[in-house]
UniProtKB/TrEMBL annotation:
One of its GO terms (molecular function) is [acyl-carrier-protein] S-malonyltransferase activity. This is Malonyl CoA-acyl carrier protein transacylase. It is an enzyme of class 2 (transferase). Keywords: Acyltransferase, Transferase.
Amino acid sequence: MGKTAFLFPGQGSQHPGMAEAFYKQNNDVKALIDEADRILDYPLSGLMFAGPEDELKKTEHAQPALLTAEMASLEALKQKGIKADFAAGHSLGEYTALTAAGVISYENALRIVKQRGLFMEEAVPAGDGTMSAVMGLERETVERICSDISSAGGIVQAANLNAPGQIVISGDKDAVAKAEEMAQQENAKRVISLEVSGPFHSRMMEPAQEKLRSAIEPITFSKPAFPVLSNVNAREETDPAQLKQHVIEQVTSPVYWEDTIRRLLELGVDTFIEAGPGNVLGGLVRRVQRRGVNVYSAQDPESVEKTAAALS
């Protein structure tokens, strides 16, 4: 019997209207989202449902909004009796994975990701850092480009190793521009500048990492109900101290997402459920493994119904 993994998306998957159908149709989800408004002491749900998009995509709002929307999806899956053997989340999504596994409480998770968003916004002056997606190059080529530029004094590194031929780089604006140029010379299929507010998952995030460490240290991390795979090493972990260390390291480390999917496949996972808005992670699973896997969505009541029917 194959195993099931829940996948939780990261920043960029947020959109106005997310989790609204759950909220209207499901009292338990309504209570969960109302609780987020209470914990954070501002109407997060209003931003989630109606935007405006420019406000919702600010890191300090997007992170708690995504965590809340993903917990709404999780609640709907739970009500259908759908359980995970493993969980993983992309960047911010790792916090939802930890909450889903009972490592941190929903309240603590919301408070941490709100602070994480603020710390990440504040770490680098606006416009100094950026990120770009490089399509169609091998990992080794992208890493060589980054290391060549870095040894000449720039800051640029592979930040998200998402799937074969899809790598996001992050760093200072000039170094990223130079890396884009070099990637094109190496015949990258496409290079896309990303609309982000900072150079996430690069060493330019060190000021955010130190503040995050102070915020997370006093919070209790418990033993997970099922293993959570960490972004920093793509390995399953059940030790609370290690899980805590990994989310602190994650802010300046690459997200090894392709490796995470490959590890889940090695662990016998053949069913992947993306719990949260959008279908970015499901698409990445298919880029890693085309055959023999089932990829399902849980972004609204309709997709949860379809997923439950397919699994019954």
